[in-house]
Design brief:
Blueprint lengths: L2 H13 L3 E9 L6 E11 L2 E10 L3 E6 L1 H12 L2 E8 L2 E7 L5 E7 L24 H5 L14 H17 L9 E6 L5 H13 L4 E7 L2 H14 L4 E5 L13 E8 L1 H13 L3 E7 L3 H5 L6 H4 L2 H22 L2 E7 L10 E7 L6 H14 L4 H5 L14
Parallel strand pairs: 8-9, 8-11, 9-10, 11-12
Antiparallel strand pairs: 1-2, 1-5, 2-3, 3-4, 5-6, 6-7, 12-14, 13-14
């Protein structure tokens, strides 16, 4: 497809009201603070608009445009971004643009989707409200008619928030073979089932997902549910994160609420497997709390509550920094609202294989020296780390 044909196709999608949702991503310039733009149709005072959600590094902004204005805005976005994923009423397509604007375009038909036009204040979920989803019914989140149970609404929101991270990660996963995914500490497996349903049942990807947990009775229950639902490529095994030896390469590693250094063990395993995507929500970060000895921070650290929270934030910052030093692009993101749980920071990392700079290495060394700490994850990744003394960097 020629570039002009692509812009014409996008214009038709907007003007003919075919859009369900879309994401424009991959900035051409690394310095671009705008990371991605999401689109969806909304009704404002009875008139059809396209809502643009601009996702910057730290903030989000919204703009509601008429179809003609949206076409112009899309043309401008294509000048600065290289990839787009569009879901339409009866199909979905994906395109990529080269440096010289050569177009790679793939499209496939899908089941017909109904577009729910609403004011932009109404949240639109990847798993729509009031539509029966078999795994949600089995796990007690929905009633048989698809209504989300009032006491499970926070869980429903958490599941959908998690799937937003998965949707953003799809472009980093292989498309020419089975996608191998491991979920360490899967527990009751709400998110494990959601992962399978979204990628395989909704998106049609070839996946093989393993949920791993130490609780035998929980694993047996989840395995039974997977069997009843016909989820043939989803398995559940009893096992420990540090002893799992079933794989030599994995595409995505998920670890949610693994306690203390169990998170670090999972992150290290993911790195050794060359996982292209890592999603981790840490829990009970105690290791650094025991090591902290920083007199210059005593104004904070003299208070036990503040020390605990600081240690948790510093631990996750160190984890993200170490992942960056071994070839990942790592971010710390909000998983769900603080009112639902204090364990709301998600580490998201994508494999880039970019070599860390001496400045980045020195920055990490300076920070851990300030805290007088030797992080557990650093030891786990020691064979892949080359650290730089801050004094060596001018």
């Amino acid at each position: 497809m020629e570039y002009t044909a692509l812009t014409e196709r996008l214009a038709d999608v907007i003007r003919q009201n075919e859009l369900v949702t879309a994401t424009i991503s991959q900035p051409r310039q690394k310095s671009n603070d705008l990371r991605r733009v999401k689109l969806k149709p909304v009704l404002l005072k009875g008139e059809y608009h396209i809502q643009f959600e601009y996702q910057f590094e730290r903030v989000m902004k919204h703009k509601n445009l008429t179809p003609d204005e949206a076409v112009i805005e899309l043309d401008e976005l294509l000048e600065t971004f290289r990839q787009g994923q569009f879901q339409l009423k009866a199909s979905e397509f994906h395109f990529q643009l080269s440096k010289k604007f050569k177009v790679t375009f793939k499209e496939r038909e899908t089941a017909v989707k109904q577009v729910k036009l609403s004011h932009n204040r109404e949240k639109q979920y990847l798993l729509p409200l009031d539509e029966p989803v078999p795994f949600l019914i089995r796990l007690g989140v929905q009633s048989e008619d698809g209504k989300v149970k009032r006491q499970k609404y926070d869980k429903f929101k958490q599941i959908n928030r998690f799937l937003e991270f998965i949707e953003d990660s799809i472009k980093h996963l292989p498309t020419d073979r089975t996608i191998r995914i491991l979920d360490f500490g899967s527990g009751k497996s709400y998110l494990t089932f959601a992962l399978y349903h979204f990628l395989h049942e909704m998106k049609g990807y070839d996946v093989h997902i393993t949920g791993l947990d130490l609780k035998k009775e929980v694993i047996e229950e989840c395995a039974g549910i997977a069997s009843d639902l016909g989820y043939e490529r989803l398995e559940f095994l009893v096992g420990d994160i540090n002893e799992f030896e079933g794989e030599t390469a994995v595409d995505m590693v998920v670890t949610l609420h693994a306690c203390d250094v169990a998170t670090d063990m999972a992150l290290a395993r993911a790195v050794r497997w060359g996982a292209k995507v890592i999603l981790s929500v840490p829990c009970c970060q105690k290791e650094l709390n025991r090591q902290l000895e920083a007199p210059s921070l005593d104004v904070m650290l003299q208070h036990g509550l503040i020390k605990e929270r600081f240690a948790a934030l510093a631990t996750d910052s160190i984890r993200a920094e170490l992942l960056g030093l071994v070839g990942y692009e790592a971010q710390l993101l909000e998983f769900i609202d603080m009112e639902h749980t204090p364990k709301n920071i998600l580490i998201r990392a994508y494999l880039t294989n970019r070599e860390a700079t001496a400045e980045a290495r020195a920055r990490y060394v300076a920070f851990k020296t300030l805290l007088n700490a030797t992080p557990f994850l650093e030891g786990q990744l020691s064979d892949r780390l080359v650290l730089t003394d801050p004094l060596d960097v001018k």
